[in-house]
Protein: Bax inhibitor-1/YccA family protein
Organism: Pullulanibacillus pueri
Amino acid sequence: MMNQSVVGSSHKPYPKLFAALFLGLIVATVGLFTGQYVPPALFLPLAIVEIVMIFMMIFARKRKSMGYMMMFAFMFISGLTLYPAISYYVSAMGADVVLRAAAITAVAFGGTALYAVISKRDFRFIGGFLFISVIALFFMGILQIFFPVSGTAELIYSAFGIFIFIGYTLYDFSRLTLNGFTDRDIPMIVVSIYLDIVNLFLFILRFIGVLNDD
């Protein structure tokens, strides 16, 4: 058991992981641009399909070929469902602000991931807190639909979201660095990292949007 643990923790095919993530981001970008041709009525069903696909990937993660196929399909559909949000922020704040938010996201995500990998500090203990916080974010978002909040409350909500997904980046890369991972795990890991990036990006956009409104 000890030898297996040592082998598992030392196996970290990061080049394959980042190559798969890069390709996945390209597929998601293609989906984003394709989203402009999707009828508005289809976005909700596509979002439901996106959620279902995450659970399907969890069960299919040990089947390497199916895992990659589902990963790229998920990325494309996720790109489609991102279009309404990105389109709104482009029209409300301008493409230059959205690109600036994307650059901030890249720096924040890259710096956090690099710190977790290089420092090898154990951030796995924050997993429970992050899970509960995401549930809280979800219900707070639902409440905001029915009960409008002040700009200050919206700013705090957005900052909390940024904090949580920075935390998830630390958590995910800490797990990868300390536990190790195999080639078969890569599709599910890519999806997890992608969701960290996308949610961080959306909360940064939301934060900037609130600041601009003020």
User: Anything to note?
Assistant: The chain has eight helices and no strands.
